[in-house]
Write a structure and sequence with these properties.
This protein has 667 residues and is α/β, with parallel strands linked by helices. Among the domains are: 289 residues, Rossmann fold (3-Layer(aba) Sandwich), CATH 3.40.50; 145 residues, no CATH class. 40% of the residues lie in helices and 8% in strands. The chain is built from 21 helices and 14 strands.
Length: 667
């Protein structure tokens, strides 16, 4: 999910980052020997499989399957569509969500409670919450995919000469982050080829961030054009004046077909950022790769899956552009280094943001007043129901004294000591999130223990002279994780002995599973962005309760709690030497257990990195420059090296650090 509206914002700002995908089909399928009609050949395809599982089990634009077998067949059909569109020459890596870190489990818990509430009693035979690691459904899906892939590498022309890796839900970690761990390990190999072209399939906007974190110039995100369906949903037919279809479809049964695919080109985004971020205050030779890392961090300030967003930073109000402009004006050194946030380098930028926080709230209120006046006129004209409730604003961020009102309303206290704790918890979270995207999970048990973020002014006031620390630990087991994220309405998805914990007081955890809970719209217009006020799971209490019923669990139940192994499928054993890790044969000659070999990541371009031809024209570059703020007073323009010189300029050994040549001091 990541940053709401991020993909719409970035594709509108940089339209050349997105191109439609040309798909070829035929009676005998797509033959990989043919030239890819999209004008480029791809080496590796990575599939964040949960997006496909959700879209195939309960689709929005077609009739859902009526059985589990139908869901599994639809998943493999759609998976083959993705493979056929990309035609990878080397590898397909499939990542299915396993047990996530606690920081993500809190969001999953909120979504699953809300999902069951929206489904209600008439939700049908399929509970989408079963798409959670540790359920029988996910175990059966893993078995189905295992058999399918074992056969596909031998018989399906799409996989001719291609290696396939499957990391299913029994292996801890989110699917896309298991993929990133694999890519980081491969890039750290001495024999890694930096000219490879990568494609990552998935709908989450944060996949763009993950693509940037690899520092691979030839990286692409494959996704469905969901905005096409959104346009249809709100389009008013000229013939019948109803929404949801076009004039030529009026009165006809809608044809069920897949949404078209599109490619987001991370390399083109890098070009755009080169233009926008070429005027910086950082002295000495500027390292563009570290500037990209800082840009990723700025985007995490606007939104991510692990922390509530800061009230003054809304992407629809230009939050990222504002942060970039403040960064360009104030940054005297890089905020991040090698996947670590250097908090002492953040304060100049926060000072700039703190100065405009009150003005942001005032401008927002003016727009809200204009919208309310518009609604008032529509009600008077009979175009809108007058019974629609308007959420009362008790905080009034646009008026003086908003800091005290905000904490009193959202946290129930205005104590400076409490505000300091909230700030430090939030900064700890920002550091955790950034490290998670660049290095992997630093702590499985860490989570942000509040439903709301602090204000920027408080981060600036209370966040100095402090450094976060994380203790190494292990993830939840699958069954314990199910108990941490499921609502009472989904308790049938856990083993029978564990179902008692949801409803029986003697186990002491029923307060974790409320039937009713408050929802705070928190100034949002749509319910899915609202804050769900659920109690946070106390790990010790939950694990103690699970232990009380563990003797009642059957052998089949306990199998759901075991950690599995990544599987490697190939017809050609000689090709396995290019992958970093241990490969152990199984009872099947073409299937191997794969244990990746951990390596220290490389946080920069690799020597001999290969760039695609320049996409932006001079006119495009001028347009991007005009979109940014005016030049800073007294600053000369500093341009990056020409693209044809970029590889040569950026080739450095992996141990080199950017240096201020005037003083030899790192920035």
């Amino acid at each position: 999910m990541g940053i709401p509206s991020f993909f719409r914002w970035i594709s509108k700002k940089y339209p050349k980052t997105v191109t439609p995908v040309v798909e070829e089909t035929g009676e005998y399928g797509v033959f990989r020997s043919k030239e890819n009609p999209n004008g480029m050949e791809f080496d590796n395809l990575y599939v964040d499989m949960n997006g496909i599982i959700h879209n195939c089990s309960h689709p929005e634009n077609r009739t859902p399957p009526e059985s589990e077998e139908g869901i599994f067949k639809e998943i493999t059909r759609y998976f083959e569509r993705v493979v056929a569109a990309v035609r990878p020459q080397n590898l397909v890596y499939i990542g299915i969500d396993g047990v996530a870190p606690r920081a993500k489990m809190n969001q999953q818990r909120s979504r699953r409670f809300r999902s069951r509430e929206e489904e209600g009693a008439g939700g049908g035979w399929f509970d989408p919450n079963c798409i959670t690691p540790g359920t029988d459904f996910m175990l059966r899906l893993a078995d189905y995919l295992h058999i399918y892939l074992e056969k596909a590498v031998h018989e399906n022309l799409l996989f001719s000469g291609v290696k396939v890796i499957l990391s299913d839900g029994s292996i801890p970690g989110e699917g896309e982050h298991k993929i990133m761990d694999f890519i980081r390990n491969q890039r750290a190999r001495d024999d890694y080829s930096p000219g490879q072209r990568h494609v990552l399939h998935g709908l989450d906007a944060d996949l763009i961030m993950l693509g940037l974190t690899t520092h691979e110039p030839r990286f692409h995100i494959l996704r469905e054009d969901v905005f096409l369906e959104t346009k249809r949903k709100f389009h008013r037919c000229e013939k019948c004046e109803k929404t949801g279809h076009y004039k030529d479809e009026c009165g006809k049964k809608r044809e069920e077909k897949d949404l078209p695919l599109q490619l987001f080109h991370v390399g083109v985004l890098r070009e755009c950022l080169e233009v926008e971020l070429q005027e910086l205050q950082i002295p000495g030779r500027v390292d563009f790769e570290r500037v990209i890392d800082d840009w990723v961090f700025l985007c995490f300030l606007v939104g991510n899956d692990f922390l509530p967003h800061i009230p003054s930073l809304e992407i629809r109000e230009g939050a990222i552009d504002r942060l970039v402009e403040i960064y360009k004006q104030t940054a005297r050194s890089y905020i991040t280094k090698d996947g670590v946030v250097r908090l002492n380098r953040l304060w100049d930028m926060l000072r700039g943001l703190e100065k405009v926080e009150a003005g942001i709230f005032q401008a927002r209120r003016e727009k809200e007043d204009q919208y309310k006046e518009f609604e008032k006129r529509k009600r008077a004209a009979g175009e809108m129901s007058s019974t629609e409730a308007i959420e009362e604003d008790n905080v009034q961020l646009h008026l003086p004294g908003f800091r005290e009102r905000y904490y009193a309303e959202k946290f129930g206290t205005t104590s400076p000591e409490f505000r300091k704790k909230v700030v430090r918890d939030y900064l700890e979270g920002l550091c955790w999130v950034f490290g998670y995207y660049y290095r992997g999970c630093q702590s499985w048990s860490w989570f942000y223990p509040h439903h709301y973020s602090p204000l920027v002014s408080d981060i600036f006031e209370y966040g100095r002279n402090w450094k976060p620390r994380y203790a190494p630990d292990a993830p939840f087991k699958p069954l314990e994780q199910l108990m941490a994220v499921f609502p009472p309405a989904s308790r049938s998805l856990v083993p029978a002995p564990l179902q008692k914990l949801f409803v029986e007081e003697e186990f002491g955890v029923t307060d974790f599973y409320p039937e009713k809970y408050p929802i705070d719209m928190n100034g949002k217009q749509v319910k899915w962005l609202a804050v769900v006020i659920l109690p946070f799971i106390e790990e010790g209490r939950l694990l103690d309760a699970v232990e009380k019923v563990r003797p009642e669990l059957s052998e089949e139940d306990l199998k759901r709690n075991l950690e599995g192994k990544t599987k490697f499928y190939t017809k050609d054993e000689k090709s396995m030497s290019q992958f970093s890790g241990d490969l152990s044969p199984t009872e099947k000659s073409s299937v191997f257990d794969y244990v990746p070999e951990p390596k220290e990541p490389v946080f920069s371009l690799l020597p001999d990195a290969v760039f695609d031809p320049v996409v932006l024209t001079d006119r495009d570059r001028d347009k991007i420059e005009r979109q940014t703020k005016a030049d800073l007073p007294g600053q000369s323009r500093r341009h990056w090296p020409r693209r044809e010189d970029a590889g040569r300029e950026r080739k450095r050994s992996r141990s080199d650090a950017p240096v201020d040549h005037r003083g030899g001091k790192e920035h």
